[in-house]
Amino acid sequence: MTRLKLIGLTAVLSAALAATPAAAKAAPLLDCPLRDAPFSVDSPLVDILLNPAARRLTTEATGKDPGKDYFMPMGTDAPTFAAILTIRDAAAIVGMDARLLPALDAKLRALPVTREDKVARCARYDNDRVAVPKGAAKAPRVLLFEKINGFRDVPSVNSARAALTAMAERKGWQLLVSDKGGAFNSATLGKFDAVIWNNISGDVLTLSQRMAFQTFLKRGGGYVGIHGSAGDPVYFWDWYPDTLIGARFAGHPMDPQFQEARVVVDKSHPLAARLPAEWRMTDEWYSFRNNPRTTGAKVILSLDESTYSRTGRFGGNLDMGDHPIAWTRCIGKGRMFYSAIGHLPETYSHPLNVALLEDAIGWAATKGAKC
């Protein structure tokens, strides 16, 4: 359904969906990643759960039902943590003997991938077209994207949306809020200057939508990623973490989960103009498996690791040394910005974080802006 909300001079358009013919709605979407991939210990766990034989083989081989006996119940309806986990990655977490995995992998790979499997795998994706009503607002025109197939932290998503909506009102931006992957096509993306991924988790774009997104960036579009948009333990689209973000998530502290830490600012970065040299704030602090500097990123914010505990969920050490948490890079003619700040709702009212997000969105949405 279409819901249009006008706020001052800003057109904030929430889930403006064009009507879809009944016949098109009935046809299953089959343009999804991993549609034809064999079952394996590296499959999304949700795909194992969707196939009774694959789930039974896994349970028999490991003594653990992947839907019930892991660290949390795993379902098949999105959003589900099973979309961002594999049997291989779950093994150490749940105390599974890794020596069991090769034999299980062989049995899973021997299973046929039927049309029913393909339809079930693709059901968490969509191709719902999004209508973009004409608005009087000036650029930048921004798409706030909220499709989540993995872990959905409702408070952070809602708080980010509220803050960004208020920001758009202040700045006179046109903002469209949509949870539909179908917005990622060349015609629709061509109506925007930048897209913001609001704590996106799980693989959410079909193959054609991925291509449209990559083309949008290469031709001069902007991307802004917030917190959970680079926080999945497993990815099934290497380009996203390795090229766009430039770093893979390693974990966050759990002892305790939320801590005050010292944030250090690189004042030489253009987006740091309104920021002090440092500040302290409380949030859930991400660590990454690799440093984004090594992939060409220009870092704005780093953490002083001496100011907080870096013990992970299962006692693992999350030290990075040099510890970036916000950075930029160029992608073709486009621009990307990512900030790991944003789990706690109050971070979206923190004046320094709001100032950074505001300037970052304005920069990402400005074609030709220097990286």
Task: Give a structural overview.
Mean pLDDT is 91; it is low at 1-24. With 371 residues, the protein is of the alpha/beta class. It starts with a strand and ends in a 7-residue tail after the last helix. The strands form 2 sheets. The chain has an 11-stranded mixed beta sheet with strand order 1-2-4-3-5-6-13-12-11-8-9. The longest helix is centred in the middle third of the chain and has 18 residues, at 154-171. The protein contains 11 helices and 13 strands. Helix content is 27%, strand content 19%.
The amount of helix comes to 25-40%
Largest sheet report: 11 strands, mixed
Assess the beta-strand content as a share of residues: 15-25%
User: What is the overall pLDDT average?
Assistant: 91
Q: Widest sheet: strand order? A: 1-2-4-3-5-6-13-12-11-8-9
Count of extended strands: 13
Which terms summarize this structure?
371 residues; alpha/beta; two-stranded antiparallel sheet; 11 helices; 19% strand
Question: How is this fold's topology laid out?
Answer:
Blueprint (H helix, E strand, L loop, with lengths): L2 E5 L2 E5 L7 H5 L18 H6 L1 H11 L24 H8 L6 H9 L5 H8 L18 E5 L8 H18 L2 E5 L7 H4 L4 E5 L8 H12 L3 E5 L12 H7 L3 E3 L7 E7 L12 E6 L3 E2 L9 E7 L19 E8 L2 E6 L11 H14 L7
Summarize the structure.
The protein is an alpha/beta fold.
